[in-house]
What we know:
single chain; 290 residues; alpha/beta; 6 strands; 52% helix
Amino acid sequence: MITRNDFNIISKKLSDKDDVTYLKTQYPEIPYSTLIAIxxxxxxxxxxxxxxxxxxxxxxxxxSFLNNGSTxxxxxxxxxxxxxxxxxxxxxxxxxxxxxCLFTNNGNEIIEKKTETELYKILTEIKDTTIIIKKIFKNxxxxxxxxxxxxxxxSIYNDDNCSPLINQIRSSTGSEYEYLLQEKLFKLxxxxxxxxxxxxxxxPKTPDIKLEIPISFKGFVINWIESxxxxxxxxxxxxxxxxxxxxxxRYGPGLAIYWFGYIDDLNNLQDDGVYxxxxxxxxxxxxxxx
Length: 290
């Protein structure tokens, strides 16, 4: 938990990842993971706003890649864009205007067995460019053009905010904290059902944990727990508020854990049946309501 004033100062000063190290010296009581989360969420919000805006004159950047030897990383840096977002936009231009580029060899000649490639079949069967790009990003080796393939790989591996690789890491981190939560409940002998178990039983909208026996935390009854491997700022709470309050409507009051911290004045949903915290409650603060 951090104060609103500290958050505003930190968020304003976090313009680059290197700023995290400096701010850690200024705020030693704030975990490094919290500072990283604040920075990452700030960058992601900015990039997502940009993501839906088409880069003007995308063709000139494509020609610069083809004729001048410019890399996707260099071009995206010039534009101030996430490298993977830029790669998606340029790849979209190629698919819609110059598909032969996907099938050229080092001599810039179209390969002989173009029609036998998996990518050719995808382009033939799928008309939605967005779906095609998702498949290519999942497996860039589909592209026969080695130069283009290399640039796609570089764009993915050098993007620490918006690439598919980062999304997989975030998903893995989320799962890790869910397992941590389950482990704590198991050690306390508190019976519970997981999200997957609830869905198998036909529940449409489910928290990560539904307690079979409620607990009391500082006098607040907990029937369910939602695990969020993120920092709870205004934007994050705006996105997740309806979700967690919806759990209250179905299962009664519950607990939302934002493992990387939250702004102190955002823990204001108790009247709506949701208590926000940044860790699993200490054992001395809970009571199992048998």
